[in-house]
Amino acid sequence: MAAVGFSRIALGVEYKGSRYRGWQRQASGVPTVQEVLETALSRVADSPVSLMCAGRTDAGVHACGQVVHFDTQAERSLKAWVMGANINLPPDISVTWAQVMPAHFHARFKAVARRYRYVIYNDQIRPAHLAEEITWNHRPLDVERMREAAQALVGTHDFSAFRAGQCQAKSPIKKMHHLRVTQHGKMIVLDVRANAFLHHMVRNIAGVLMTIGAGERPVEWAKEVLEARIRRSGGVTAHPFGLYLVQVEYPPEFVLPARYIGPHFLSGLPELAADA
Hints:
Elements: E1 7-15, H1 33-45, E2 52-53, E3 62-72, H2 78-87, E4 93-101, E5 113-122, E6 135-137, H3 143-150, E7 155-158, E8 173-184, E9 187-194, H4 201-213, H5 221-228, E10 243-249, H6 270-273
Parallel strand pairs: 3-10, 5-6
Antiparallel strand pairs: 1-3, 1-4, 2-3, 5-9, 5-10, 7-8, 8-9
């Protein structure tokens, strides 16, 4: 709960994570998104600002639908929070909207679903453009095989096999609402929505699906990995560059501004924009 005399402000944030060591501020002083954004907002508030986020993204991971909140006694217009923050931010971080929220809103603990997209560039030649915003895979990938394998992961399961060793989640049981695999020219997009995610869960799923798509494992392997509940059964963790936090959902009582589902370079594709 926000303290008496404080306003709780929620922000929409997007960022390119390539040069940051993830979202969370670190004692070692390495650059993080949280530290840079808190510094910018503190200048606008003329007082220290401490942020809570909906999802703590890893080093190299991007976001176009991150939600954060903070409590402040500073009185600023919503436009001032957005424009003031952006003036003080580097080009790879942007605040997209601001909204005053009820005192009991919490960006992380009130979220009921999160959605990620993992973008693969499938070609023999590595791309010079978007090099840190997509994952390049030189092996020809069979999208139909990946799509078929993905269905074994939809539903409520123990995702221990897709969980990083340093994961701090209390339970490995998560409900995956959908896992869609679509192809757009040389790009393959994994669209994953769940109530919550384990550390490296999406990247580990991407690694399994790309291995199946390359014909190195049978379609049934995704189900076998899931049922094994052992991380070492699941192959390599895919690179972070193609991963985007694209949406965070909350109960209907919290009405937040709606934006298209990113990332930007995919926003014009009708198949991906249809349910945005």
